[in-house]
Amino acid sequence: MFIIILGILDVIAGFLTFLETDIVTGVFFYFGCFMLLKGIYSMLTSAVKGWYLDFMGWIDLLAGITLLTVWNIPYIWVLVIIKGVYSAMFGFLFSK
Q1: CB contact at 8 A, 36 and 64
Q2: Which of 13, 14, 92, 96 has its CA 20 to 30 A from that of 65?
Q3: CA distance 90 to 72
Q4: Around 73, how many Cα atoms within 13 Å sit in the side-chain half-sphere?
Q5: What's this model's pTM, rounded to 2 decimal places?
């Protein structure tokens, strides 16, 4: 169930990165902090396990940076939404 919630939050963050605003408002700030922390946590836990190429953690990290700054990475929102849909579908299919 937790994976489904994280996937849905990824999809929402993907739509927020698509909006490309010049002003960081409260929603952008909180989603940016969440995505940044989630990316750092994902990369650190993967590194502890010996897996250093955690692309999902890098996508979260880039989405967090994009939401916290006005520096927009072109089409990062596509990767974030695909990752969110993948995570949510994985949670739906394999949750008990």
Answers
A1: yes
A2: 92
A3: 28
A4: 17
A5: 0.87
| Parts of the chain with a pLDDT under 50 | none
3-state secondary structure the chain: CHHHHHHHHHHHHHHHHHHCCCCCCHHHHHHHHHHHHHHHHHHHHHHHCCCCCCHHHHHHHHHHHHHHCCCCCCCHHHHHHHHHHHHHHHHHHHCC
Asked if residues 11 and 84 have their Cβ atoms less than 8 Å apart, the reply is: yes
Residue 55: closest CA among 45, 42, 65: 42
How far is residue 30 CA from its own chain's centroid?
12
CA 73 vs CA 28, 44, 55, 86: distances in Å: 15, 23, 16, 21
- Residue 73 confidence (pLDDT): 79
Q: Which two tokens stand for residue 45?
A: 């836990």
Phi-psi region of 75 (alpha: psi -120 to 50; beta: other; left: phi over 0): left
